Amino acid sequence: MTLGRIALARIPATRGTIHRLFSTTLSSSSTNRTSPPLSRHMSMKSDNLVSKLTSSGLLKTQGLIDGKWVDAHDGDTIKVLNPATGEVVANVPCMGQSETNDAISSAYDAFRCKKLHTEPTVQFSKMLASMPSEGNDTWMSPLQYDLLISHKEELGQLITLEQGKPLKEAMGEVIYGASFIEFYAEEAKRVYGDIIPATLGDRRLFVLKQQSHEFLQPVGVVGAITPWNFPLAMITRKVGPALACGCTVIVKPSELTPLTALAAAELALQAGIPPGVLNVVMGKASDIGDALLASPEVRKITFTGSTAVGKKLMAGAAGTVKRLSLELGGNAPCIVFDDADLDVAVKGSLAAKFRNSGQTCVCANRIIVQEGIYDKFADAFSKAVQSMQVGDGFSEGVMQGPLINEAAVQKVESFVEDAIFKGAKVLLGGKRHSLGMTFYEPTVISDVTEAMLLSRQTKLEVLVSDWGLIQVYNGACCGLHFLFRSLKYFGLHSVDISSISFWEEVFGPVAPLLRFKTEEEAILMANNTKAGLAAYIFTNNVQRSWRVTEALEYGLVGVNEGLISTEVAPFGGLKQSGLGREGSKYGMDEYLEMIYLLYPDEICLLRRHEQKMRFKVCYQFAAHNHKVIWIAESVQSRPFEYEA
Ligand code: NAP
């Protein structure tokens, strides 16, 4: 099979799979509001699952440094919880600066010794992925991509255990995550440089992304910091291209979801990744971040997470002038025009809003609906949301799991309270689910305006003169929740918070519906944010779809479709949603250095000498024929020294 055919066959398959996983659960169920709250004790089911995963060798509970599984130096650990039940799934090391420094040394040694570079790029790419050979070569085995796919079920179970998303969605993430390993293993063969047309004739100009004809020009040691909402895919989206380019990596997964990262690292070891090439540390986030930032040996930080932490890393990277890729928060508008197909718009908005319980950076944060279709859409959308089954991600037919933790629920509550306080109407849900723990009801809120926290990014600055100056910083969701409760308690309902500026996505299963009249108004509302990651448009008017797409300040736009991520397309935001792109051929450049090479052109000099000689002949001939002189002069664009 050729690479081209593999890629062509895979695009619809991957998208189709993720879409299908989402929509099967969507159509099958009714809301479960009567089940009793789940216990915090380890249930028999979870117990069996954990022992099954332990015996499969995939439940790793140590960090990985220099190819060895290690504890924190002081033996400190952190608990990894199942958000659906609150039970402890495992204890993992709580690492900090010294373990991170060990990981940096091992990654640096691996890079410097050029352990990778003893293998030409093409060989290395074979090592990364299990792909059929085009020629007579055989692929190395066991291999990373194959191993991820063949352990899809166990990895999916780990994701559901520690992150909470429904198992089918989790297995969809494994396929999506593995696709980056496969894609970049192929892509390593297609790193091209450039030949630049020179302005001076006696030299040649090149752009090299390779050290020789076989080896790429990697950035060096990479620190990869990832969030909890996609415990596998956010890692492979970084590690795939980094390793394919020949970088070595220190991965820092979220302390909330380290188990999937550790399992993937175990599979990488089984696939033959040399010691030090891939390291995993977790624990004290800011200590680990500081160590990565301070080290001159780490040449790049790639980060997916909140805009607040991204900004900190950006400032910290200045000290050693590191390269940065930042995949930060979004505030995605989903615009439904009067001329949209209602079913397509409902299905697409549902997928864009409720995937992973609304906890993705590309989740529709504001559903902006034109007035002519607003009521019909609100009705049909609410019906569709009502049919979503909520529960433990391991239960059959469940479409929405728990939120990641209590702080996440409190933030959702405070945003909903703010909207109700300012006149929005709850069409569906609007409170914690009767399942207890961190389950929240799938919620639809109408009459949302841009003054509400649900739809705008604001930064809380000055409040309530009775209490003096109160500041709530980015990410202080509990503080915000407390603040609203306190304001109510003191009867301070009339406090003006419209000047407040607080940048947060709701990051939960709450769909706010806003109303607009004209296309211009929709575009203004959509762009009225500091974020610029994903946007969605629903319309049957082709000209409008192009016009609006071009006016939107977003890195990703989905037209009549709510699920848009794929490994073959560039993923990344404009404005404060980040820097750089992940996925696709563009994601490769983030891990490669570019060298400009000027080369005196010996051949050209030689040719010029020949030309001189030829010109001499022409000139001599010209004594007899004037036309030839004219041709000779036009061929020679620069003043030319010649002897008559
Ligand atoms: P977060 O709080 O920024 O955490 C992301 C990662 O950064 C975690 O591993 C976290 O560690 C770590 N971290 C926190 N403080 C740090 C520091 N001072 N130095 C170094 N690392 C630090 O974000 P999150 O709550 O996990 O994820 C949700 C956010 O990610 C949302 O804003 C979402 O929009 C964004 N996101 C963006 C994309 C994208 O592609 N644009 C994709 C997914 C998610 P601990 O968890 O261990 O504290």
Automatic annotation (TrEMBL):
Main location class: mitochondrion
Residue ranges of every copy of the Aldehyde dehydrogenase domain listed in the record: 69-456, 496-594
GO biological process terms held by the UniProt record: gamma-aminobutyric acid catabolic process
Record-level GO cellular component terms: mitochondrial matrix
Annotated localization: Mitochondrion matrix
EC number: 1.2.1.24
Catalytic residue positions: E327
Domain of life according to the entry: Eukaryota
Annotated GO MF terms: succinate-semialdehyde dehydrogenase (NAD+) activity
InterPro entries tied to this protein: Ald_DH/histidinol_DH, Ald_DH_C, Ald_DH_CS_CYS, Ald_DH_CS_GLU, Ald_DH_N, Aldehyde_DH_dom, Aldehyde_DH_Superfamily
Record carries keyword Oxidoreductase: yes
Keywords: Oxidoreductase
Family: Belongs to the aldehyde dehydrogenase family.
PANTHER family in UniProt: SUCCINATE-SEMIALDEHYDE DEHYDROGENASE, MITOCHONDRIAL (PTHR43353)
Protein name per the record: Succinate-semialdehyde dehydrogenase, mitochondrial
Lineage: Eukaryota, Viridiplantae, Streptophyta, Embryophyta, Tracheophyta
